[in-house]
Amino acid sequence: METKIAIVGAGASGLLAAKKLSESADMHVKLFEKGKQVGAKLRASGGGRANILNTDIRPCHYNRPDFMERLLARIGYAEVRDEFAAMGLRMSIDEEGRVYPATLYAPTVVNVLLEQLGSRVEVRCETPVRTLRQEDSRWRINDEPELFDRVILASGSPAGMIVKNQRGYNDYLTDLQIKRNPLIPSLTGFRMMAYPKLLFGCRVRANVRLLQHGRPVFEEFGEVIFKEDGISGIVVLNCSAHFNRLASKEDCEVSIDLLTGDGDTQSDRQLREHGSLSGILHPKLCELYAQQPFDLRDFRLKIAGTYGIESAQVCSGGICTEELTDRFELKRYPGLYAIGEMVDVDGVCGGYNLFFAFASALAATAGRGFYA
Questions:
Q1: Residues 5, 152 contacting (CB under 8 angstroms)
Q2: What is the mean pLDDT of residues 351-365?
């Protein structure tokens, strides 16, 4: 007897789930996608290069380390890598362990997934899911004439969307009364208090520390991008992920070491011997230093908050992990699953969030439980 499956959302997790289910001859999968094309975020991820994985996948890189520890005991980097390798996707790894398609072209990943779907998967774009209700032990989506035996929720979050498009996102969950944590922007820049606007357009590579009450919370080296009212860059985005995990956001600041790797007295020697810092600092930082000297090893900026969801790469929040089994099935709703960015699991930059999208899809569709 044919099993009817609905997948809500044709992003990274939804596409891989559809691919896995299409491998079974008794499955018919209908993939509902709100947008005009599938995999829109995946096509744009990693600056258009799709940083799909990282060789260093560990629970500490995520906001829910206990939940991730259980997932990684079953599905880790090797399992996801091998899944894509079996589809014919060649991958390349950079010096920091980030994994990309060898083409360095994000649509390659989408194309490989689409080619694997087969005739048992029906893709319906521009079909938003407005209602989801249970009828006996099956599920009805919108006013579809057919009922579905299983439903996988993979419609992601509104991260990166303009404010107008965020309204009503995933409202179909409301009637189910599933416990969810509020969505807040993660992997986004910081707005700063008393910010020196003359730094707008400046870019530096520096060691950055997130501090609260003067104590370090997180530290990483990378590029800092100075914007009109705050800072961004991968290292700052990772700081924002750890900022989100703080119980209180009071008295937080970033400390930027602009002389990482240099001797403690280099700035003094530079000024004594050359009369300026032009040879070691960006011109805009030199201009700021001339106006109000600051510690080049501990340049501090007070955090006013993060940029909004429209600027975020992912959201923190979503369906609480305690609502789910280890196979991503809703405990109170047998036959209903939630994967990817639907779940309150978010990681730092570097392929960690796409890894979770893919790993959760594999976990949800693995074994005999889904097919019973």
A1: yes
A2: 97
